[in-house]
Amino acid sequence: MIRKLKQLSLATAALGLVLAGTADAKVEGDTVYLGSAISLTGKYSTNGEHTQRGYDLAVKLINEAGGITVDGQSYMLDIIYYDDESTPARGAQLAERLINQDGVEYMLGPYSSGLTKAIAPVTEQYGVPMVEANGASLSLFTEGYQYLFAVLSTTEQYLASAVALAAEIAVAEGRDPSTLTLAAAFENDPFSQDIRTGVLADAEALGIKVVIDDQLPPELNDMAATLAKVKALKPDILVVSGHAKGATLAIRQMEEMRVDVPMLALTHCDSADIIGNFAGAAEYTLCASQWAPSLSYSDDLFGSAADFAATFEAEYGYAPPYQAAESAAAVMVFADAFERAGTFDKAAVRDALSATVMETFYGNIEFDETGKNIAKPMVLYQVQDGEYVVVAPTAWAASEVRWPTPPWAERLE
Amino acid sequence: MLDNLQLFVDAPFLLIQVLLDGILFGAIFAIAAYGMALVWGVMNVINIVQGEFVMLGGFITFQLTLWGIHPLFGIPVAAAVLFVIGIGLYYGVIRRVVDKDMFISLLATFGLSILLQQLMNQIWGGDVRTAQSGLGTWFLFDYTVTIGQIKVVACAGALILGLILILFLKKSRLGQAIRATAQNPRAARVLGINTDKVFAATYGINAALCGAAGALVVMAYSVHPYIGLPYTVRSFMIVIVAGLGNLPGVILAGLGLGAAENFAAFILGAQFQVAFVFCLLVVILVVRNTLLRHKRKYLK
Questions:
Q1: What is the CATH number of domain A23-153+295-366?
Q2: pLDDT of residue A4
Q3: What is the CATH number of the domain that holds B19?
Q4: What percent of chain A is modeled with pLDDT above 90?
């Protein structure tokens, strides 16, 4: 028995040595390896793929432009991927594997807040900087993580621009914003509840009265009860967030029940493909988005936001969703930080990351001390004549918001 | 909460709206619950894969729309495809567990549900899908009460399917065999009924019912590979409330629960909608148990 134990411990030690031997792959020759656990199968596989393509496209363009120059020498970028199967536990495991076995010292984020939440403690523990582009939950940035950076806007900002826009319109109409009423229907999951917190805080700050505050159970496939209430109370703004299912149900059931609201703001319009699915019924809907190809941002690598969209479409055959754009931006942030740090030392790269000030096709990037990007606002699209058009914030807007939404009786003629 | 009750007083049409929405919502659950009642009653299997059958029926209908076929044809097509799948699954998996402990069949059907989820995710991707029936809305009382026509189709479908099923079980040869097997599989076998075939047919009919329900779900609401579970749970509940072997009870329980939960969502807020249904289930079980006990005492 004791002999067996001894053998076992020897074997473990030997295995440890072998593993330690491989843990030096962060820079091989002239290639720097980034690592990422990403959802290639499972429920996030669609968005996981968008994320991966965004990363790949940025790496391709950076390498074609000669790679990155660190301390006078140029390096190419490469990414080691693993499939996390859309499960947080697997994601954390794979992060350990990337760091311990593959020797990766710089991580790109996974897809979704849930996966990021699972991986961040691991990267933090090993002091590995992670730049993520698809974990928007505000709760990621209240843990005091030092090595986590996010290029996207966090959840509490998602629909804040809609509330602000409603107030702006009210003022322009000569109405006091505090006379507005708002109905909120948010799915009862951490992501949507984060958005809800932001919306309610903004409504309170502007003195807008919240007349409905329903939290839809995630397993629910029906919003009729909430919408019946909306119909009776006639709020000025209806805000709904419940992933693609919430957006789909909101449009479908509002049309069916003829719920008239002057302003409807949603999240996940594009993943629910409300224009493709509902055509005319989707008109006038406002949609929160991280990014839009029509924005006037630009950089030297991709050119303008529209150029990025064109490059992406040429490569993959479809227009880039914002998930792909923000992922590409995350790689650019890393490249920029390497060059400014002038070394591949993890701590130095981390410090360079935290000092990032960049203008990219995706928007401006500047991290606060918690690691979230504070330089880029959320944008608000409106469905106008079957197209998503940016209407807010007004500084970047391509067109005027169409307001108020006419009643259904007039719309369907 | 009181504000919401006040709304009913201010706008009485809301009562009708909430009631109708609830009833029509419950109808779709009732269809899936028929199947569960059958499989449970006849085979003594609690079919966890119920919700995935519903989703699969929805995805098949969605696929038809991609081929340019009107989704209403999805109702018979999804039912037919699911019937075949159900029979296949019976001979592949369920047959091996049907006479075992109920726990084994729970595990087996749970495994199947994971398998189907992943398959649907592989084939159709992890996006929410929906199909346009092209049906409109009926308006009552000057646009105040609205009824989605597709939901009426669903409700009528539930009633018709229920009727067909009851007649089928009462009159047809296979239906009688199914009932005989449900009463006592061993005696049925002794009397020359091929219970294996009866089980296969039962499971196939169940899957077909779910397929039809799924076609309605994709037209009235939405489908996604991972949101099947609520349909399983709800069918389970409806069967419990109705009592095994009580098909008219299933439709009543389905519609009633739908209406009750919609009222709960309206009055208490949507966050209590699902919780309320489960609380109601507990109450119903306790009350029923008390009544039964009372009856037993009386019989002594």
A1: 3.40.50.2300
A2: 57
A3: 1.10.3470
A4: 60
| Any domain includes B284 | no
Q: Are A200 and A210 in contact (CB under 8 A)?
A: yes
pLDDT single digits (tens) B37-81 = 999 988 888 999 999 999 999 999 999 999 989 999 999 999 999
C-alpha pair distances (Å), A218 with each of A43, A337, B257:
15, 40, 19
In a domain, B49, yes or no: yes
What is the predicted pLDDT for the residue at A243? 84
pLDDT at A23 over 50: no
Please give the residue range of the domain that contains residue B186.
2-273
pLDDT exceeds 90 at position A236: yes
Query: pLDDT above 70 covers what percent of chain A?
Result: 93
Q: Are A23-153+295-366 and A157-289+379-411 the same fold in CATH? A: yes
For chain B, the residues whose C-beta falls within 8 A of a C-beta of chain A are 4, 7, 10-11, 14, 17-18, 21-22, 25, 118, 121-122, 125-128, 130, 132, 137, 139, 143, 146, 148, 217, 221-222, 224-227, 229-230, 262-263, 265-266, 269-271, 273-275
Does B63 map to a domain?
yes
Please report, for chain A, the start and end positions of each structural domain, with discontinuous segments joined by +.
23-153+295-366, 157-289+379-411
Domain tally, chain B:
1
Contacting residues of B for A223, CB less than 8 Å apart: 270
pLDDT of residue B127: 81
What's the CATH architecture for A157-289+379-411? 3-Layer(aba) Sandwich (3.40)
Instruction: Say if B292 falls within a structural domain.
Output: no
pLDDT tens readout for residues A334-376: 999 999 999 999 999 999 999 999 999 999 999 999 999 999 9
- Chain A partners of B270 at a C-beta cutoff of 8 Å? 185, 214-217, 220, 223, 225-226
The pLDDT of residue A217 is: 86
User: How far B176 CA lies from chain A's nearest CA (Å)?
Assistant: 37
| Complex ipTM value | 0.81
SS3 track for chain A: CHHHHHHHHHHHHHHHHHHHHHCCCCEECCEEEEEEEECCCCCCHHHHHHHHHHHHHHHHHHHHCCCEEECCEEEEEEEEEEECCCCHHHHHHHHHHHHHCCCCCCEECCCCHHHHHHHHHHHHHCCCCEEECCCCCHHHHCCCCCCEEECCCCHHHCCHHHHHHHHHHHHHCCCCHHHCEEEEEEECCHHHHHHHHHHHHHHHHHCCEEEEEEEECCCCCCCHHHHHHHHHHCCCEEEEECHHHHHHHHHHHHHHHCCCCCEEEECCHHHHCHHHHHHHHHCCCEEEECCCCCCCCEECCCEEHHHHHHHHHHHHCCCCCHHHHHHHHHHHHHHHHHHHHCCCCHHHHHHHHHCCEEEECCEEEEECCCCEECCCCCEEEEEECCEEEEEECHHHCCCCCCCCCCCHHHHCC
d(CA A130, CA A28): 20
